[in-house]
TrEMBL record, chains A, B:
The organism of origin for this protein: Pseudosulfitobacter pseudonitzschiae
Record keywords, A-Z: DNA-binding, Transcription, Transcription regulation
Gene Ontology molecular function, alphabetical: DNA-binding transcription factor activity; transcription cis-regulatory region binding
Highest taxon of the lineage: Bacteria
Chain residues forming the annotated DNA-binding region: 36-55
Pfam families: TetR_C_43, TetR_N
Protein name as annotated: Transcriptional regulator
Signal peptide interval: none
PANTHER family listed in its UniProt record: HTH-TYPE TRANSCRIPTIONAL REGULATOR BETI, HTH-TYPE TRANSCRIPTIONAL REGULATOR RUTR
Sequence ranges assigned to domain HTH tetR-type in this UniProt record: 14-73
Amino acid sequence: MAEVRKRKPRADAQKNRELLLEAAKEILGRGGPNASLDAVARRAGVGIGTLYRHFPTREELFMAVFSRELDQLIVTAEDLVERDDPLEAIRSWLHANVDLVETKRGMLGAMSLVVTEDLKQGYTERSSLLRAAVDRLLDKGRSIGEIREGVSAEDLMQTLYAICYARQPGPDWRENVLRILDIFVDGLKK
Amino acid sequence: MAEVRKRKPRADAQKNRELLLEAAKEILGRGGPNASLDAVARRAGVGIGTLYRHFPTREELFMAVFSRELDQLIVTAEDLVERDDPLEAIRSWLHANVDLVETKRGMLGAMSLVVTEDLKQGYTERSSLLRAAVDRLLDKGRSIGEIREGVSAEDLMQTLYAICYARQPGPDWRENVLRILDIFVDGLKK
DNA sequence: CAATATACGGAGGCATCCTCCGTTTTCAAG
DNA sequence: CTTGAAAACGGAGGATGCCTCCGTATATTG
């Protein structure tokens, strides 16, 4: 509608936002979804009030932090649609997720939180894109008749994060997660 | 070694322990694994110190609360070993878990916490029993050649709780969880 | 250089965690 | 029944985290 002429966003605000994202990436990456937001603010060197002004809820902060990661996953999924074998494409995509996640265990809870939260509410463009990309992967498999009906992108993603999250961290983490995921993928066959 | 003769455990201590377990069942059932322990003590009508004396860590409290639930699951698993179709037996056992869990959503995180925690450390008799029972289910399927190699009882249980936990609560919860689990079970086929 | 919209910081109120220790209760020996 | 020590109790208290509120500071614009 009538777009009101607005002032240019203040430089310091933008800088602080950046500092907060940086700090959050660090702190949340280590401490997981329950990490202290006070700590994030401290690390960023801003007041706690500033944090809450930029990101009124924990979720919004997560969301912002993960935008880039999500982008990467979208690109990966879109590339994989080209592949001939849809089931293997899905397997590859899941493996890519595991790789991405392996270095950021702490973010896992947050990831699944983001995925479910905003898929549920459906108002975030980025996650729609991700879901769409994954859905295309699934669709291709379904159309060939290689993948069973009744499995949504949400199902796939939630299961992925659930499995990653439930597994105890440790030297065998990656191996175990991949093993379980493979079973699940096999179950997707028609 | 030389078992020292000890005093009979005090009556009040035992009573308080019971009160605490009762309260914990209630509070944790609602509030989940992050529920306030202060609240548990309040509800039990004992001092917070008393709670911490009986259950020095959150995990130990969970553990105690879930003993009975675990017992029930053990019995169920043992019954199912008799069944002819191992894959369906496993499916049934998983469904039984879902049913048990459905009325106590809040306990989910705690459940998986217990399972992983003490399976990892392997010092709890009860969870060994549970794992053994589930393993027997799997073994039977493996021996018939119906179930693939390389899947442990831990795998099964952790995946179960992971899936239950990741799914958003809601009217479709049960349906969705069962759907995903079925895919996983199908993946277990050889 | 104002004027003002915008952003900042952090104190403060409340909740939770967990420890520590002075007080109370129970048990059992005499 | 006493009585004293072992066992258990309760909750204050210090630490940390959450989030709100508002007085202060500063960037932008005319």
